[in-house]
């Protein structure tokens, strides 16, 4: 809301007409312009964004803090005597809260990643690039490293001044403290990441006591270096040039997608003024705070730009200024194109919204069915390739097999081996088997049958392995595989 004179003079009317013309020209410019204007520092191109407070920044900080804490502490959770989440590369297993997944089960993980991608697309249709602003690890670690820098060096002006200042003992101490804390945080991040592949409780002790092996140490420091460079040095460059999501996310937008948007009709023509001053200008006081607090250095007043990560920092900064001048809030806000036009917001009618939502729902059903049909016993029957059969002196026919039985659970299990097909089949081996957690048993057996009971030279025989422990539904899990029994 702008303060206008109730009875303008002819000169004021002329100025008002010019102002309205500027507003009319500014509206299509702000909506249509997509070429970014990134505010780089003249010295080296580094963006020193201001630390901003506000509702959206509190929400972002809490979500980022939760993300970082979960990332670091989940590897320390134990479940049924094992690390709750562990990608055991040596054993080729993935432990997830009592569920053991093997390489042949990784289609389930593929479904999980596909569902996560379509869920991201689904949210993007409604809220735009909100993932980048509030949940993306790059954003979380960038703001965390920036917070450390603010505590040691000071605000953005102090950081700019320190960059331009000649080297001195004070500058060296600040740089040393900053980079030391960055390095420590990066090292914890590297340990946190590798802790999902190597038991975390032993990993941290080995790393900080310098007793870890060469490859473990190398991988930890590799990811620590990546974190240090990405969050400490590259920062917005990852979002501007490396992240593929920044390049294709705009194709998911429609007229009902909410993104961080500048209301050009209300804000233009912009210009500085004193508080409570009557003016023909729009509500934008051209304080430039929206640019100063932007982590990617863009000016949101230039319209939708792919560099915008929807973190809401400019919204909080602009609302802070609007409060000081007594203007209505949300000159910059999360709004859709239809909202700016005064039209009703009907996101659920969007074909993209319905399509992505239906895709996520269908894939969740498929994943649930796949999980339900997944067996915790793996059986592979291999015939003896040396001979088809053997005939004994008492007119019995014998066939030899090798069974590979894997216990895919995280507990030792006892199994019962049975034969199906011809009732005359007899197993010449122990039918009760104890297999340790995650172990594959290579079990040679011989099957015997009377020659007179075999009608053909080749018959089907079924090998059935049954878990002696009942599952949650009161049933005994079992798996079977057919093979051939040969005779003369």
TrEMBL record:
State the Gene Ontology terms under molecular function. Answer: 4 iron, 4 sulfur cluster binding; metal ion binding
Q: Which NCBIfam families does the UniProt entry name for this protein? A: ccoG_rdxA_fixG
Taxonomy, superkingdom: Bacteria
- State the organism named in the record: Shewanella salipaludis
Taking every annotated instance into account, which residue ranges of this chain make up the domain 4Fe-4S ferredoxin-type? 275-303
Q: Name one GO cellular component term.
A: plasma membrane
Biased composition regions of type Low complexity, renumbered to the chain = 10-20
Q: Taxonomic classification, please?
A: Bacteria, Pseudomonadati, Pseudomonadota, Gammaproteobacteria, Alteromonadales
Q: Which Pfam families match?
A: Fer4_18, Fer4_5, FixG_C
In Swiss-Prot or TrEMBL terms, this protein is called: Cytochrome c oxidase accessory protein CcoG
Q: Where is this region: Disordered?
A: 1-20
Q: Which InterPro entries match?
A: 4Fe4S_Fe-S-bd (IPR017896), 4Fe4S_Fe_S_CS (IPR017900), Cyt_c_oxidase_cbb3_FixG (IPR014116), Electron_Trans/Redox (IPR051684), FixG_C (IPR032879), Ig-like_fold (IPR013783)
